[in-house]
Amino acid sequence: MNRKTLVLPAVIGLLAPVLAACGGSDSGSGGGDPIGVGTTDRFTATKDAPAPLDPAFAYDVGTWNVLRQTVQTLMIQPKGDGEPVPEAAQSCGFSDSGNERYVCTLRDGLKFANGDAVTAADVKYSIDRARAIKADSGVFALLSTIDTVETKGDREVIFHLKTADATFPYKLSTPVAGIVNPDDYEKNKLRDGFDVDGSGPYTMKADVKNNVLVDAEFTKNPNYKGSLTVNNDKVELRSYDDADAMGTALEKGDIDLITRTLSPRQIQKLSNESGGSVDLVEMAGLEIRYLAFNTNAPTVKSRAVRQAMAQLINRSELVSKVYGTQAEPLFSLVPATITGHSNSFFNRYGDPSVTKAKSLLAQADITTPVKLTLHYTTDHYGSGTKEEFEDLQKQLNASGLFDVTIKGALWDTFRPAEQKGQYDVYGMGWFPDFPDADNYLAPFLDKDNFLGSPYDNSEIRTTLIPDSRREADRLAASGSLTEIQDIVARDVPVLPLWQGKQYVAARDDVTGTAYALNSSSTLQLWELGKGVSG
């Protein structure tokens, strides 16, 4: 039957430590056809991004979801929610009271998929490599608090940090901290193409056509040793051009499950239907969408222009028209469900008001209407993006204060152009690297930020971000985090729009779908199996 399942994050969080502790990889579901998983993520090797799957470069949810199956990390985020637990490591922890020295001991007998031993030296090599390459994706910034990496014997790794960082265990659970074999990954050069090797739960075979990964076959790694239980022998991840093609493949039985990205229409249809062989699983999500600004661009260099946009945009109307119950208005970069969230944009601007926006522009002597182009990606965040930007255009132009046009581009064109500063205003989404407020602020506001944004607030970078990271109790960091969010609402280098839910649609003989994604949108293929239809 077609049923809608609500996963309760709090319950999952309570169960996760127990489930993660089960460990092992000996409970595969046996032979047979691979479990087929569909996605609309595109994996393309281009001149600007020739190494999309190198852990030292990859920095989007799609490529990370490939790496998490294949490249092992010292720590891992549990299947539901909660703090990271050891994965390649047997144990990890701060060895000082100031959160500046972090020590990990590797599991005994750890091996890469090819049989080579995984040593502390390999961990150091992998971390130092990502930090030294400094790929223009900006992913290396996740490791920015590391000063030096030390090894002691074959199994002990010691991280000396520049400053206290209570979020460091989370960062060691991200693919940029993945352990790679020095024989496969050169020290000072990215690994071009789609080959991936590691010590994770699967090995991967890529089917590539015209520099695009169209199919990835994940096979259970017999040498895997970690905290995960692998419930299948093989999974096939297939990339589709759009949500409709992916949905058709699911209905026909060509694939068994789809995650990213169902269209709003598909979700609504599956939510309302009863009967049939496809189930919809709904779970809380931490995805956000926002507008970003090149604050050096003449059209939006004035803070008043950005503030006026913040004053005009009606998030509730936008969400209602495009996404319905699948999203909620967001008034900060930090989602409402994350400790440290503050409704800073609502506190500053209140309800949408043309009068207030007009006053902001007049006080800054800005001639109206302000001409702008809003750029968006046509293929990376789902089919609703175009409609979303059409509504933003309509809202801004209806005020009479803006003359907005919109322009879409494929992700492999959009992302390099954004990084090079070619867009004044552009739409982006964010799936957290880990579920902490720091990861919704530092990647956008710190030095070497993900966006390559020229916005630089010294108080945020030198005082507030470091202060927040000193607090192991994240609730105690709320003061610094709130100050950051208030500054962002005042200066508007980014403009948050909405927070979304997560969905999985699967044929009803697929098991483990409630854990197919965790709270950070990590695809957990090892949780999937084939069971009895119900």
Automatic annotation (TrEMBL):
Keywords assigned: Signal, Transport
InterPro entries per the UniProt record, alphabetical: Peptide/Ni-bd, SBP_5, SBP_5_dom
Domain Solute-binding protein family: 83-449
Annotated signal sequence range: 1-20
Keyword Signal: yes
Compartment(s) where it occurs, according to its Swiss-Prot or TrEMBL record: Cell envelope
Domain of life: Bacteria
Similarity comment text for this entry: Belongs to the bacterial solute-binding protein 5 family.
Protein name, entry field: ABC transporter substrate-binding protein
